[in-house]
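Problem: given the chain below (253 residues), write out its structure.
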Amino acid sequence: MSNPNPMIGFNRKVDLIWLDTVASWAAADLSEAEIAQRFSDLLATIDQGKETRRKIKDILSGIWLQRTGDLPGFHETGLNLYRSLPTSERLALHWGRSMVVYPFFAYIATQVGRLYRLQGDVTAGEVQRRIVEHYGESDWVKRSVRYVIQSMHDWQVLHAKSFGVYIICPPRQITNPTLIAWLAEAYLRANQADSVAPSTILTSPVFFPFTLADISAQQLSRYNNSRLEAVQQGLNQDVIVLQVSTPRRNGVS
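Solution.
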């Protein structure tokens, strides 16, 4: 069923180097004035129109500078991980933040992962058709799908096999249990899920750029993320529950 009032938010191509730059500002606890000046300098290097630069700034700010609602703990853990993780693992942080702040991004990532599992490649047209079924038939939705796919290509998680046809780049191995628990929280928040089995999270197509190590519900919660709780469901299955309320985090255009 289509959504008559789609909330997109992620509506321009975003380069990975811009995400890294803004994340580094957030991790350095810069003042608002200093961030504003650095944003001015960054946007001056982007050869786009004024409106496009404004939208890019909104997306980057949404991903790494927002601290609203019940996100502070999730946000601070992400910043601490950014400070401690090697550069090669920081993409997972950008991915998790994008999922939570812009569920449109998460929905596209899920469709890309599913299509690739089914057929071994992904066409932009197929992804677009699936997104239109959910968000509605409009040029705005279609363009935004293209922007997200172009961003994923720039982030080197998709490789262009031919025009409009992509394959997934070799997935990155994620073994850090704190990072995996943080990504599990991102999954719950992005999907507005009450409870989910760890195996569902760890193998979700939304995480197609990564291979997440198999860790237990107890490892996800008690030892690595105090905002998650392991709850026994049935005789021999544990599920993960987010301990705080999770208001919808749709982006706005």
